[in-house]
Amino acid sequence: MSERNNSAWSPSSRELQRRALRRKLSRKQALIAAVSSLLVLGTLTTILVTSPGWEVVKATFFDIQYGKEVFPTVLKGLWINLQLTFFGGVAIGIIAMGLALMRTTKSSALTPFRFLATAYVDIFRGAPLILIILLVGFGVPALRLQGVSSNVIVLGTIAVVLTYSAYVAEVIRSGILSIHPSQRAAARSLGLTSGQTMRLLYYLRRYAELYRRC
User: Fold this and answer.
1) Are 136 and 80 in a shared domain?
2) Element (H or E) spanning 144, and its range?
3) Domain co-membership, 130 together with 156
4) What's the CA gap between 149 and 202, in Å, rounded?
5) Closest Cα to residue 171, out of 114, 89, 93?
6) What's the total number of domains in the chain?
7) 107 vs 30, 103, 111, 193, CA distance in Å?
8) Is 178 helix (H, G, I), strand (E, B) or coil?
9) pLDDT tens-digit profile of 100-158?
10) In terms of domains, do 139 and 191 share one?
11) Nearest alpha carbon to residue 149 among 160, 161, 162, 136
């Protein structure tokens, strides 16, 4: 009987009016946004095109012929950028994970490494990136170390990895510390190891939330 009543349900007239009003309001807001965007963009374009130096800017930055000439060089730089992004991202992930684990460990034997990891994060998060690039780019070649590359691309990537590893380490550490000790204890009581607890606790928390909602 209940299934029949549910299948025969239909919205009331007031609900239909509310839906129609919401659709009308959405269309009105979309129209206002479109008109406002056209006015702002049109005004900016008009100011740009009618400015006295537009012809110079056009010849300098919007020369199609010159763009065709340098396009292969741009593609080459893009490929190098993608390679550095991949290798730099992997290196940042590995170093940041190590730093986060070092900063959250409570082992007495690892106390010196915990202090070093804390100093590393504080220094590289506080120093400007351009300063780290200058220090690595000019300081490392000046040391004349054997086996150390002096390629500017490699040195620039190392500088970026050193800086962003500190930022990502803090993100990972905050995620680790967000897990309440009682949740770790509950997972360990179920027979999970420390690695399984850290790897599966996110899904356990999601299941717990879904269970409470049900």
Assistant:
1) yes
2) none
3) yes
4) 41
5) 93
6) 3
7) 58, 10, 7, 17
8) coil
9) 989 888 888 888 999 999 999 999 999 999 999 999 988 888 888 888 788 888 899 99
10) no
11) 136
